[in-house]
Amino acid sequence: MRYHEVVAQSAEQPEAALGLRAAGVQRTRDNVVTAVRERLIEAGYHGLSLEQVAEDAGITRVTIYRQFGSKLGLLQAVADDLTQRGHAAERLGAAVTIPDASTAFRSLVSELCRFWDTDPPLFRRMVSLSAVDPEARQVIETREQWRYDGIHALVNRLADEHRLRAPFSTAQAIATIAAVTSFPACDQIATTLSVSFVQLPEPLLLPLLSAVLDLRPSGPAERQ
Fold this sequence. Notes:
Layout: H1 3-43, H2 50-57, H3 61-68, H4 71-85, H5 88-96, H6 101-116, H7 120-130, H8 134-160, H9 170-180, H10 183-193, H11 201-209
Helix pairs in contact: 1-2, 1-4, 4-8, 5-6, 5-8, 6-8, 6-11, 7-8, 8-9
């Protein structure tokens, strides 16, 4: 074997080892997040035991502390995983940037319902947890900020186009839309009607929100 081939091979071995270690760390993290999700749904946050999570994930409690720090760190990891599984950041970001404000708003509502459909049992547990635990509330509200930001941006765009329905002000429209598109509201409607979240936008939510905003297409011909 030539010298440069030996050098190249030697350089690749540490990189391969690092890749294996990183993959192992990620597998451990995924196992822990899965265990925490199941325990949260079963017993709630206050019933969440680090020992049980460690046992379910096949690791030690020390490893959990090393990677997550605390129970709150575990909750943050589960919330982040939920956002990633639902592709919330990219899909909602893409919806908000659609040039036509009405189309963008419709897309935002559809993507919100799609996101709520990612894991309803976990959303239910986290929403109920946020009502009684200040730390959990902060975790959830921080990750809900993207929803409020999207609604705020699109309502302001529609207001600039004189699309607010009387008697709503911009602030009133934002508050109303945030309430109607929240997980608890969507969950109540979906459960009562025995439909999935993705079935809510067109036949139900968007007609309802048309009482707040003029959601007809922006083209002059369509708005006549």
